[in-house]
Design goal:
Chain lengths: ~375, ~190
């Protein structure tokens, strides 16, 4: 292969309209729900959790029994038709209906108000360009990260300040877990069965769901930069989180050099011959973000500087590794780069005001980040 | 304790083709398409060995190299190449399932070949056998032919891989449904 393969610029998908059908209290009493029903203990959470584990539905954490009443209440708060097919999820390619989403969301303890966010996330993940098919099957420890923009961050208490990636008490864990249960129960992703993930990642339990600190960020919100204003969600296939500590730098270019060089470890998927291209997301805390913006006002310049530093001399690679990348025409002037182009650096702003740290999210590779508008249901308009 | 009813959270796919599809039959005069990938050099060596044997039996072998960049413009390009590959062959051999995602794409491409009516055999290494079978079933063809090579394979040098190719030739032919000429090959 003698061409460098780059990721095309992101184009937002056409806005999807939803059919606003109001089932009303009376109409919702009719037999709308089509899922199989199972008899079990519906009072004792631990007994139900064991029952669910025996059925292969659980993740090991306690589950709330998805009784018909609970699922109906969840649906009533949204007025989306239960039989509406949102997407088909690999590897099972099963139809993911609103009803299945509601059942799994109830089990995870997610609030009914999160349904539009869950739906938008799943629509993004199901886009063929996200390559959920490969992501779910791979040996890699990859999980879709869910980045939330817009006022819905505050309405659902999606964290974007201190501890936004874990440790902040919020419903985002339950919402993220709902998505993970849907991938497991509807998509059919089971470790050792349909997923060969060698190690997995803690993010495969509760997801990685957080927001951008838009109010403190010097840059436009991530989704807005991709053409979608307001409430939106972006999904990104991440190999986990990589901390970058910098207690030394005091000049903007030094900060970027430290970040870029830290990201360029040779075992990352961005350097893999198996992945012809990759994106690279980096979360920069508000303190550093403001320092960078003041000195480097053009956002594309920040991407360019990061990209240049996120590289390695080809001679640093092992011989066979270098040979494969050379054969793919990925050695440029003696260097290899984590991403093909600077634009593939996805820079976001979040985290606490203590500064000092950045977080790198290495990409699985060919999963192209997807952004979707979060469409409110009629009860939430 | 209250016994009540809860709703099933799973999605179920009901359709399935349990047939392995048509046999490859005689190789003479056929175009055998072998799908390679960019990752596994051992699969190149196995394929080249088998291709030489197929040609001895009167077949023509056509190679097509896929990659894992199956999204965006690259994905469209690869999908078009796959369509053209399918149109140009009589028998499909698709490999190599030797990691999670590449097993996924191996099976997906094999299903595309099988769904086009081609005698099709996917090739996986033994660690990824169950994944290959699961994904075939999820893809609606639990009967898809899958030949299993030993694991590890790509970690070996060519001198260790070629004997594997030789040892597995007859088994591969049996999986493909080549019945008439097996004794004449290798």
């Amino acid at each position: 292969m003698n061409i460098r393969r780059s990721i095309p610029p992101y184009k937002p998908s056409p806005e999807k309209s939803i059919e606003l059908r109001d089932c009303g209290d009376a109409a919702c009493d009719i037999e709308w729900l089509s899922s199989l029903q199972h008899e079990t203990d519906t009072d004792d959470v631990m007994k139900f959790t064991q029952f669910a584990l025996d059925q292969g539905w659980g993740d090991g954490l306690p589950l709330i029994p998805p009784t018909e009443l609970r699922v109906r209440e969840f649906l009533n708060a949204n007025n989306r038709f239960a039989d509406e097919i949102i997407c088909h999820l690999p590897p099972s390619n099963s139809a993911c209906t609103v009803e299945k989403i509601a059942i799994n969301a109830v089990m995870a303890g997610a609030p009914a108000e999160s349904l539009p966010l869950i739906i938008a996330s799943l629509e993004g993940m199901a886009d063929p360009n996200f390559e959920l098919f490969g992501l779910n099957a791979t040996t890699a420890p990859v999980v879709p990260l869910t980045l939330v923009n817009g006022p819905i961050r505050n309405e659902l208490n999606i964290p974007y300040k201190h501890g936004c990636l874990g440790g902040h008490a919020s419903m985002s864990v339950a919402i993220g877990r709902a998505i993970r249960l849907i991938i497991r129960n509807v998509g059919g992703q089971l470790a050792g069965v349909t997923s060969e993930t060698t190690f997995g990642t803690p993010g495969r339990v509760g997801g990685i769901m957080f927001g951008e600190w838009e109010e403190e960020s010097p840059w436009a919100p991530f989704a807005e930069r991709r053409g979608i204003e307001g409430n939106a969600v972006s999904v990104y296939g991440t190999m986990g989180t990589q901390n970058i500590l910098d207690t030394t730098s005091n000049r903007p270019f030094d900060f970027l050099e430290m970040m870029g060089k830290s990201l360029a470890y040779i075992g990352c998927n961005g350097f893999s011959p198996a992945m012809p291209y990759a994106e690279m997301m980096i979360a920069i805390n508000p303190v550093h973000a403001k320092i960078l913006h003041k000195a480097i006002p053009k956002f594309e310049d920040i991407q360019e500087i990061l990209w240049r530093h996120a590289s390695q001399d080809a001679t640093y690679l092992t011989e066979k590794h270098r040979e494969q990348l050379e054969a793919q025409n990925r050695v440029i002037n003696g260097k290899v780069f984590v991403t093909v182009e600077p634009k593939d650096f996805l820079v976001i702003c979040c985290g606490g005001t203590g500064g000092l740290h950045s977080t790198g999210f290495h990409s699985f590779g060919s999963c192209i980040t997807q952004t979707r508008k979060i469409l409110p249901g009629p009860n939430q308009a | 304790m209250t016994i009540g009813k809860i709703l099933d959270p799973t999605g179920i796919r009901n359709d399935d083709i349990t047939s392995p599809g048509p046999d490859a039959g005689s190789l003479h005069g056929k175009v055998i398409g072998i799908r390679l990938d960019e990752i596994w050099r051992a699969w190149d060596w196995v394929s080249e060995y088998w291709a030489a044997e197929f040609e001895k039996a009167g077949a023509t072998v056509k190679f097509w190299r896929s990659n894992q960049g199956r999204t965006g413009e690259e994905g469209e390009r690869i999908a078009k190449q796959l369509d053209e590959f399918i149109q140009s062959i009589d028998i499909a051999i698709v490999g190599l399932g030797n990691c999670g995602s590449c097993t996924g794409w191996t099976i997906r491409d094999a299903l595309a070949c099988a769904n086009a009516g081609l005698p099709t055999t996917a090739v996986c290494t033994e660690v990824f056998e169950q994944l290959g079978k699961q994904l075939s079933a999820h893809g609606g063809r639990s009967g898809l032919r899958i030949h299993i090579l030993p694991y590890p394979l790509n970690e070996k040098e060519i001198d260790d891989v070629l004997p594997v190719a030789k040892d597995h030739l007859q088994g591969m032919l049996a999986t493909m449904g080549v019945t008439e000429q097996m004794e004449n090959i290798a």
